[in-house]
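Review form for a predicted model. The reviewer records the input and the model, then writes brief findings.
Reviewer: anonymous (R2)
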Amino acid sequence: MSRGKRYNGEAKLNMKKVLAVLVALLVIVMFVFVIYKLVTNGKGERMTNNYYFTSFQDNKYGVINNKGEEVIAPSYQEYIVIPNNKTDIFLCTYDVDYTNNTYKTKALNSKNKEIFTEYENIEPIANYDANNTISYEQNAIKVQKDGKYGMINIEGKEILPCEYDDLYSLKNTDNSILIEKDGKIGLVDSTGKVIIEPQYKEIRGLGTDYKLGYITITEDDKYGVVDCNNQKVLENKYQDIKSLTENGIYAVKENNNWELVQRNGEIKLSEGLQNVQDILGIKNGNIIIKNTSNKVGVISSEGETILNNVYDDVKFAFTGSYIIEQNGKYGIAKSKDEIVVNPTYTTMNYISTADIIEASEDGITSNLLNSNFEIKLTGIVTEINTNKGYIKIRQDNEEKYYNFRFEERTKQDINSSNTLFLDKQNDKYGYVDKNGKVVVDYQYDDATEQNEYGYAAVQKDGKWGAINEKGEEIVAPQYDFSNNLGIDFIGEWHLGSIDSNATYYTK
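Model under review:
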């Protein structure tokens, strides 16, 4: 085959075409570089779609990925914390001396290589909610250098200098980390930005949302308010300030009396609050109050009585309505003259993100009520997922799904990314695909829906096993999970039962 005349020097190069080719090649190189940056962490290490979980075997902790593969062999006596399970940063504690209360820490990546070695200690930042359930800061890590503490992000960049005596999260308030220096308390956010310099005896959140601001307490126990931009809202001159606010109105205690004040400190309401022992909540200008006889009622911001102080407890529900507790039973009231649901339930909760009320008389079967106080669903509620907007409820021994308008939905609607869907025939469970074709025969006594990693748990003769995304049985039914907090599998590893704050997978 002839190479063409160009190789014999019989024709000139077309420089315009050459230039065009060079430009095209440059674009391709730039595109490849961008793709390379996207699939790496900027250090030449490939980032994958792996998710990571703490494992436990033979009384030692390790790490697995969402394929059930061992990443770090179980070799640590202390629980391994994974702050962000999408990122391969595993925080390990070792050489623990319980007598002298000393220990060492280190961070490993998925190659079992120690990272962030320039620090003496490296620890997760634990967040506690009102029920003391723990979560971890996903993008910030506590580090120690020369005996002082600071923070790095998950790329290892220092976002808060190591110059503080200690740091830890503010309980039940997001994006808020307390810092200590020379005996004073300050506050930073999860990016390391200093919001309040260390100058107070104590700092509290005004609510779970950091945007509501913070209560600051001085050494002489004077209370004030600072917003999330470190702007002084209320001077530190009050005896107490409640951890609640609405539309710039604050509940403050001064001269042993409660008042409602505005951001500028101007008194909005004091009448009707003289005999108030505590203020429990403010919503839409209405205030839940507890009197000196420990009875709870509601007044408006103008001092008008909405509910008399005759209840053991009152909670906000739908707009203009309240969950009332009386003699251990719950109902719903709109005003002192209008009880819309009599107090007959043993439990009752308003789920604000779904705008529904769940109420139960026996603690097992629930009624779900809409904002017109109508019972729309009855059954055993197994899940109310406010992220995806659905209710999972067992009715007539079948799992059914509904949206928050109480319209029934199929499993395929709710779990559109699943490859398998739980189905039931003749009191036996199997799995079908999205078109309803049977993939796993109806042979199990119980089963779970497929989890986000493609696995489902199946039960036969009281024992549990697992299938994969193809419906193949990868773990024969063999485990008794009657004492477990939950039932879940990642490959051949099943969820352990340590507690809700330190879950692991084992086999």
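Findings: The CA atoms of residues 205 and 487 lie 35 Å apart.
Further findings: The chain has a mean pLDDT of 89.
Recommendation: see findings above.
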